[in-house]
């Protein structure tokens, strides 16, 4: 078997997350490029990938994500375009001769893992995923990725079918020489220098709690639910539009604006381009993400409106120039993470019982072997972009110590926003640069001789 990677041949590290795609080289401390994990499809069928391409109003463009609402991979063609853009337009590498390391979600199914392997070795046949990957490789990295191994960071939520589809895409369509899929929670542990821990990933579509022991995911103990950034964004939209009667104007609709006073009507010129509902929704959520980062904060303890109404307010200016102050709303929206039954709006459509973030952690810990529980509680690793909301980590510690003795709970949360947002990618970068890792690459020869099932045996 040919050995890829190491000091002589660098590898490419890709993570297609439900919110953003991260791409770069092993051994580097942060990704080279980060962009939204969506693809715009025009009426003529030509895909639009990358934040710049999607930043301006374009008629008849539908915005699609490659993921299901449960975090598993659904539209592989979008995945392909994302990866191709990353390799050919961003990194600009000849990837056929380079190993590829993919950081995958622990929720990816076995089928998803097989799809990834077949994609990379054969012909990139998963469509939306294909578009995203293509953009990352060709438009951003601009590398000859056919000469480079590729490591893909995959979600623990990926199904077996999704993993197989990605593998087939990378081997068959991208023609990469070697590939590896690493689960995002395992990669997060590597970032913190651990082989074991309880990874709490508060991401975009899902929050997932994953026990990792000696470098392996304890799959039967994973807890996941759609209480994360996207749910908080929907709650913020519901609060602003339905409770405060505010009209949220996304930035793409603002041609120019003029300053106005606090709570005065916006004075702006509007872009009149007609766009699809998915395009409008994509930009509306972009606006709300900025609002969340600037305004929202988790209360130090259980929500108390009388007490919190005395806190300092926070003023925010929307893209159209309208600006106003927020007080209790700042705390009420994030409270959904800790008391979803009382505060989550709109409520779940299917009547599903939603657990709070502390309840998810305790559920996963209690599903572990009794000998591992103390170790998990003392090695809680917080990651994911939504965990960066002010006060979330401190509130989580406060809530957990109501259930467990304080001296038994230890939470590690990087102070750096880069490590918090890109922790799993950084872990993949570390893994791909280790000399001891090089024997784990799945080579093209092995894929052709043993089939996509080699992914399940090698990339556990």
Automatic annotation (TrEMBL):
<dbReference type="Pfam" id="PF00022">
    <property type="entry name" value="Actin"/>
</dbReference>
<comment type="similarity">
    <text>Belongs to the actin family.</text>
</comment>
<protein>
    <submittedName>
        <fullName>Actin domain-containing protein</fullName>
    </submittedName>
</protein>
<dbReference type="InterPro" id="IPR004001">
    <property type="entry name" value="Actin_CS"/>
</dbReference>
<dbReference type="InterPro" id="IPR004000">
    <property type="entry name" value="Actin"/>
</dbReference>
<dbReference type="InterPro" id="IPR043129">
    <property type="entry name" value="ATPase_NBD"/>
</dbReference>
